[in-house]
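Researcher: Structure prediction, please.
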Amino acid sequence: MYHAGRMTTERTWVTVTVSEHIAEVALRAQGKASRMGPAFWNEMPALFAELDADDAVRVIVLRGEGEGFSNGLDLAAMGPELAGVISPSSGAKERAKLFALIQRMQNAITCVASCTKPVIAAIHGWCVGGGVDLAAACDIRHCSADAKFSVREVKLAMVADVGTLARLPAIIGEGATRELAFTGADIDAQRALRLGLVSDVHATPAELFSAARALAAQIAQNPPLTVQGIKQVLNTRSERAAADSLRTVAMWNAAHLPSQDLGEAMAAFVQRRPPKFTGR
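Model: Predicted structure follows.
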């Protein structure tokens, strides 16, 4: 548990600072960017359960360190865990393990949406793949002018499976979600604002973080149980629909993710060349 005074806790993958009823959760950079490796997927639910249970925390601000919010899944770090379950020749046992892995990874994002405390995403730089999953699970999203977003899983022959397709339609609409998911295209801060993906755009990351803290402080001044009740009522419909979508995509990817196209995407990524997909 944290206390009402300022307190900072550092872990290998995150720094948590609590002050004046606001918890600032900063995803730590590996090199220039924050990536979602094993510690992220394994430890996020416990962290958010702890923050959720702490009466000293009324609002959470989620941001990245380094040059961006998050570059998504750390393929290199997750490679050993994924290697045994995504081979096109994998059998029923391996696909059952893949289904369980997808559900565990989904929980690392769903814990943000299900947390009773409001979560504000402060997004600067790149927000890619898993970063979009994470941002979509937050209640409010602001970004800086340098922010860029991409639902990029299609480029890796993957169906985004940990939250984007479950939550983004309620935020930006079905048509825009389909366009971003089908193309894997990058969009800038101004288009994100027009789509409603973010509520506001700030000139610099420093101004973004300051604005996010000010917004959090404004929310924290309100009666905490009432604020939590608002979130839980709003979640009633949206998270029920999200849960159905998440289970569907987990089953789909357990069956179809191990493919020749996935192997081609990985090889092309390593060799820095355009992939040639065959639908196999």
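Model: The first strand starts at residue 7 and ends at 10.
Researcher: Thanks, that helps.
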